[in-house]
Amino acid sequence: MNPNTWYSPNDIQTIFDRIAPVYDQLNSWLSFGQHRIWKQMTVNWSEPKEGYIGLDICCGSGDISQLLARKVGKTGKVIGLDFSQELLAIAAQRAYDKYPTLPLEWIQGDALNLPFEDNTFDCATMGYGLRNVTDISRSLQEIHRVLKPSAKVAILDFHRPSQPWQEGFQKWYLDNLVVPLAEYYGLKDEYAYIMPSLERFPIGTEQVKLAQEVGFNSVIHYPIAGGFMGVLVGSKTVSSEQ
Ligand SMILES: C/C(=C\Cc1cc(O)c2ccccc2c1O)CCC[C@H](C)CCC[C@H](C)CCCC(C)C
Ligand SMILES: C[S@@+](CC[C@H](N)C(=O)[O-])C[C@H]1O[C@@H](n2cnc3c(N)ncnc32)[C@H](O)[C@@H]1O
Hints:
Elements: H1 9-19, H2 23-30, H3 35-45, E1 53-57, H4 63-72, E2 77-82, H5 85-98, E3 104-108, E4 121-127, H6 136-146, E5 147-158, H7 164-184, H8 188-192, H9 194-200, H10 204-213, E6 216-224, E7 229-236
Parallel strand pairs: 1-2, 1-4, 2-3, 4-5
Antiparallel strand pairs: 5-7, 6-7
Helix pairs in contact: 3-4
The protein binds the ligand C/C(=C\Cc1cc(O)c2ccccc2c1O)CCC[C@H](C)CCC[C@H](C)CCCC(C)C and S-adenosylmethionine.
Residues 9, 12, 16, 58-60, 63-64, 82-84, 87, 110-112, 127-129, 132-133 line the site of S-adenosylmethionine.
């Protein structure tokens, strides 16, 4: 797959609708179950508390939404938003089967045009979404807009490690394990999309700058999982600080 290929929002939506049936299984196998730990770390960095209203953007099959909902408890509420109808249906069914009483709501929508009023949420998360949106700054701007002042966002995604041997290993792993396994399920092109999307994705320091530009403060990018993944954390500025 050519790293210079431009993917339209429709292409991205089609990729995720197509991989929906195997998405959870492949993530568990390919990360040796580690993705659950990375997702829990992300939720913790968004600092959810009992009674909070949380938003999980690009929620996919809803792993992070579930973890967030367990933190805000029955007095709170979590909205999982995604544009893939297939993944949202899986998210709703999985959450109902495992935690039927969790305060979760599922909304089909666009991360670049969030269907919420300004200053609505007490915390927000996004897992493996920022690399997939077609306009990163716009997406960060939308998250900033819907958060209440001083609320936190935590954004998990792949990260390109700084050591050349690690970067080589990451590419090898994606090309030689991830793509061939996906090919077995008829999803070669969909998974081959990860590497070029990662090559285009801003590194940690660039992500920090983009978040600051849209108004976030106390912005930090934490490399995790040996630098193969990263979590971008920021707070919405209280208006007197601007
Ligand atoms: C949950 C994970 C990835 C989600 C994901 C994100 C995308 O943007 C996709 C795009 C297209 C198809 C699928 C996805 C997608 O599944 C992360 C875990 C799965 C990874 C494939 C595993 C990658 C492992 C690391 C490169 C190296 C291993 C580190 C070690 C396990 C500590
Ligand atoms: C790799 S999945 C991540 C799912 C989930 N957060 C997780 O960590 O497993 C990326 C998700 O982003 C969604 N997505 C990508 N661009 C989007 C957009 N502009 N608006 C809404 N959802 C989007 C896809 O449909 C997909 O479910």
